[in-house]
Design goal:
The complex is a heterodimer of chains A (300) and B (530). Chain A has 11 helices and 13 strands. With 300 residues, chain A is an alpha/beta fold. Chain B is globular. The chains are: A alpha/beta (300), B mainly alpha (530). Chain A: It is found in: Cell membrane.
């Protein structure tokens, strides 16, 4: 089976802006691949190149074994795409848009369409202009997930969905994976990526800075600890995996790798913990910590 | 008055946002009656000539239906009658201004942003109404001053200005009420325009019937019935004032009772599944364009009926004016003048049809900017197919609109000269002869869209230049090469005996070449270009 997405050295510039700067991305067949990065890092640009909407300036791009620019139409019949901001025609109902997009791709599964509508609690009779942001997103998701395609390309598909619907979305992505579909899931929500993805590519400033399985990327995780201890601190600094240790009397603050968390906490309890706050890293913090090229004031 | 808190600030915001649009329509609408008066003074200097014109106009039902009744033979009375259609434009401008600053704001969510601040419950509606009322009153004053400056009696001038202003006030208030009823600005505009259309129809019926009571029921019928310059009836303005008060008395309680963003009428639901027709890109394009093409056809059909009906009288309008009669005899007498009038009318329809073509082509730009093109192009739809699905409407649309105009014109003109079999095909041909020139502009819009999408609206500017060249070229005595820049200059006058079809083929070829180049460019460029 061919590799659904293979990108190497992709460059795309808009005027003077270099949106993609030698990006590499490989998505294997049957996997859910997380495509992570902050806003403006080039995720949507990459996806638009993959869809043949934007023309690459340099680099090699293969999509489902074809050239996304030249073979756009044939390839598009085999994939479904949900943009990050689904906009609907104001005078078409949600149901009409779902069917239209399905037919333009070559048909959708009516049974799954009905199931999807029910689980997303979407009223298909409303006109496009009457839907909220989250409901517009659902229209795009139902149209894509009801299609019989090999590849799903989802660009921040859950923006505007509430946590309950986020659950429903995850359920359907897992089902798509079970059915043997490949999924490229662009996101900046770390929890969503953690819950769904087999492998992850992290992009920053138009380059892939990290790519691998989640376990491989675990080392990126650091938990921030802010604790007050009974006895003066001792022996924490030499523990492997402890970073940025700051001691202020009995108060101690540090960041710790997930692997070293247990050892660090053991040391703290030996000293007698009076209070403890632990904060998991946000994606942005992860970036800031892992890639040192950060202005001074942001790290404080 | 805490319910009005912030009204002043909102009014200033409206004035700031409309600082170009508002003065523009006020000024244009105020100047037009003045120019009518000036031309009546020049064209019909004697009472006898004016009497002949007044009688001719009063006898012609399609002119009376379009512009309103003739109440006298003075220059003032003729000016007031000639300006009858301006009332519709004033009404429309006032209506749309109020909706633009109430429901449009609410639908876009900007009203919510302001509602979080110190803003009274009534401030939004009040500010929009006050600004529009002020614009209407200013328009009335300027109109009156302008008319008086041409030498018309002051009392009549002010009566006419007052009628204009109060017509605007009624429809502004109607806009305020419509904005409360529906969730969408489109729905509110629909209600407002439907009422405006019904008022116009009532006035048409009343003014052409033997008894004019339907006109008394129409807000558009009140202003003429003040009878400016012909024994002003100063009690008539009470009618629009009472009507406005009643409309406001309904609008305000409704606005208080409903939630922000909600309407009174429930939003209409659509089908849960797509019909058979909504399948390919052409099915989608049909859904997106069909409303426009329908309304343009209806509008142009009505216009054609009215103008065709007026042509015969226009041909005879010079009777009793020996100088003009002499000039007209040279171009073929009354029928020659009617043909000249019809030719000019249909060439205006050609310019408007080009506007339709540009509008339909630029729909692609709107689809791209709104993010609608991207998901469609990410399916099995070829770029060329998508583009063609819209270009078809940019090309077929002008044909439909001009054919309808030609047929409608031919029908009523044919009836008035009792020769429908001859005039119907002649006018259809004269309408269709405008198509190639309209295509050139539509083709230009496609080219711009494919090549330089950000500059696509420049096509409108090109149309504006064509309009100016066509309308003012002869007056300003511009050089022929300048006039030749407009494709409409090359459209042959097919109502004359001899004409050549070659320019039509050339124009059509140019239009297709422009569109084809646009298509090629579009296939190569990035989508979306923001």
């Amino acid at each position: 089976m061919e590799t659904p997405i293979e990108v190497s050295g992709l460059v795309k510039t808009f005027g003077r802006t270099r949106a993609l700067d030698g990006l590499d991305l490989t998505v294997r067949a049957g996997e859910v691949h997380g495509f992570l990065g902050p806003n403006g890092s080039g995720k949507s640009t990459t996806i638009r190149v993959l869809l043949g909407l934007l023309r690459a300036d340099a680099g090699a791009v293969r999509l489902l074994g074809g050239d996304p620019w030249r073979d756009a139409v044939a390839l598009h019949r085999r994939l479904a795409y949900v943009p990050g901001d689904v906009t609907l025609w104001p005078n078409l109902s949600g149901g009409e848009v779902i069917d239209l997009l399905g037919r333009l791709r070559g048909g959708l599964d009516p049974k799954r369409r009905a199931e999807l509508l029910e689980s997303f609690e979407l009223d298909p009779r409303k006109k496009g202009r009457a839907y909220s942001k989250g409901n517009r997103q659902k229209v795009g998701l139902v149209a894509a997930l009801a299609s019989d395609v090999e590849l799903l390309i989802l660009d921040e598909p859950t923006s505007g969905l509430d946590p309950l619907m986020e659950e429903v979305f995850q359920h359907w992505v897992r089902r798509a994976k079970q059915d043997g579909r490949t999924v490229l899931l662009s996101s900046h929500i770390l929890a969503e990526v953690e819950a769904l993805c087999d492998r992850v590519t992290i992009i920053r400033n138009g380059r892939a800075v990290e790519s691998g399985t989640l376990t491989e990327l675990r080392h990126l995780h650091r938990t921030s600890i802010d604790a007050e201890v009974a006895a003066p601190l001792d022996g924490l600094a030499d523990l492997p995996g402890v970073h940025d240790l700051r001691v202020d009397g009995n108060r101690v603050r540090f960041d710790v790798d997930s692997a070293a968390l247990d050892a660090a906490l053991r040391r703290l309890t030996e000293l007698g913990v009076r209070s403890l706050v632990s904060t998991p890293p946000t994606l942005e913090e992860l970036f800031l910590r892992h890639y040192e090229a950060v202005p001074e004031e942001l790290t404080r | 008055m805490s319910t009005l808190a912030g009204t002043r600030h909102l009014a200033r915001l409206i004035l700031r946002r409309d600082r170009v649009l508002l003065p523009l329509w006020v000024l244009v609408l105020a100047v037009l009656p003045m120019t009518y008066a000036t031309s009546f003074f020049e064209l019909f200097p004697t009472a006898a000539e004016r009497a002949a014109y007044a009688a001719g106009t009063a006898r012609n039902p399609s002119i009376v239906a379009l512009l309103g009744p003739v109440y006298g033979e003075s220059v003032g009375a003729l000016t007031a009658q000639r300006g009858g259609f301006l009332l519709v434009i004033v009404a429309l401008a006032s209506l749309l201004t109020v909706i633009r600053h109430t429901r449009v704001e609410e639908e876009a969510g900007r009203r919510e942003l302001l509602g979080g601040g110190v803003l009274g419950r009534h401030a939004g509606l009040t500010a929009a109404l006050l600004v529009t009322y002020a614009a209407d009153l200013l328009l009335g004053l300027l109109t009156a001053a302008g008319l008086a400056s041409t030498g018309l009696p002051a009392a009549g001038s002010y009566a006419y200005g007052l009628g204009t202003a109060l017509t605007g006030v009624v429809f502004a208030t109607l806009g305020g009420l419509a904005a409360q009823l529906t969730e969408t600005a489109g729905g509110a505009r629909g209600i407002g325009i439907a009422v405006l259309g019904a008022s116009f129809a009532l006035r048409m019926v009343g003014d052409t019937a033997s008894n004019d009571w339907p006109s008394w029921l129409s807000p558009l019928g009140w202003a003429p019935r003040i009878r400016p310059f012909e024994g002003e009836r100063w009690w008539v303005p009470v009618l629009p004032l009472v009507a406005s008060a009643l409309l406001a008395a309904v609008a305000y309680p409704v606005s208080v009772r409903r939630d922000l963003g909600a309407g009174v009428l429930p939003p209409r639901l659509g089908p849960a599944t797509a019909g058979r027709g909504l399948a390919g890109p052409f099915g989608l394009a049909w859904r997106l364009h069909r409303g426009q093409i329908l309304w343009w056809s209806v509008g142009f059909g009505l216009l054609g009926l009215i103008l065709g009906g007026a042509a015969e009288a226009a041909g005879r309008s010079v009777e009793g004016n020996p100088q003009l009669e002499q000039i007209m005899a040279r171009i073929g007498g009354a029928s020659g003048l009617a043909d000249a009038y019809l030719g000019a009318t249909l060439s205006l329809a050609g310019l408007a049809a080009a506007g339709y073509g540009i509008q339909a082509a630029l729909r692609m730009r709107a689809e791209e900017s709104a993010g609608h093109a991207e998901p469609v192009l990410a399916t099995g739809t070829h770029r060329s197919t998508w583009l063609l699905s819209h270009v078809v409407f940019a090309l077929v649309g002008p044909v439909v609109v001009l054919a309808v105009t030609g047929l409608a014109t031919g029908l009523t003109y044919g009836l008035s000269v009792q020769d429908v079999p001859r005039e119907l095909p002649r006018m259809l041909g004269a309408g269709l002869a405008q198509v190639p020139a309209a295509w050139v502009l539509a083709g230009l819009a496609v080219l711009l869209y494919g090549l330089l999408p950000r500059l696509a609206p420049v096509a409108w500017a090109v149309l504006a230049v064509c309009v100016l060249l066509g309308q003012l070229g002869a007056v300003l005595e511009l050089d022929q090469w300048l006039l030749d820049l407009s494709p409409f200059t090359h459209t042959p006058q097919v109502l004359r005996d001899t004409w050549s079809a070659t320019p039509l083929w050339t124009l059509a070829a140019i239009a297709l070449a422009l569109a084809a180049t646009g298509l090629t460019a579009f296939r190569r460029r990035d989508v979306p270009v923001t």
